[in-house]
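Re: weekly structure request thread

Next one in the queue (215 aa):
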Amino acid sequence: MKVARMVPGGLIPDSLFEDHIVFNCPDAGKTLMVALRAWDTNGNSNSCMVNVTVQDKHTPKISCPAPAAIDCKDVFTGMDLTKYGNALAIDACGATVTEETPKFILNSCRVGTIERTFRATDSQGSATCTQVITVGNSDVFDPLTDVTKPLDYTVNDRCSADELKPESLPAIYGNPVIRQSACGLAAASYKDDVFNIVTDLEAHMIHMFSNKPSK
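Done, posted below.
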């Protein structure tokens, strides 16, 4: 007994019958009619037809790009994450790969992780994988080396403390200069200690600065 696919008109010559039929991916999900034919020793034959439903039994497999490490200065809204790779799907009859909305798990200094989840889907189901991109800061703020303090300032013709606020003084005597990376958030604040010497009608003011380092 041998088997063959049905042909238009239904008359299948003996030459088309084989020991087996190969079904391919374009047949998946379809119901196809095949013919079975048997011969006796005298060459007489008889045939019957049967419907065959072709199924793809394999769910897809997916492989994510390797983990990556980047600097916080390279993280910005709308950044192109495809430069860090794309997922690869493996499936008998092909699968569609989609990427979900990335998760930016970052602190205020843009340090943390970015998670990219990919999904491969075919008619039998789906599979997912996640790439983790670690975001670090290669230039961490150090208040001992990244802050230049303002110079001391002496004046003899001021009577109002408002005239001696840092923003009112020349730059080199005013606010400290802070050097930090593109993703740093260091800032400085101050409070005044005023010492009045009544006998000499003098006043001494000390600006006490405090730094708020970035994380």
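The radius of gyration is 39 Å. The chain has no helices and 14 strands.
Next request, please.
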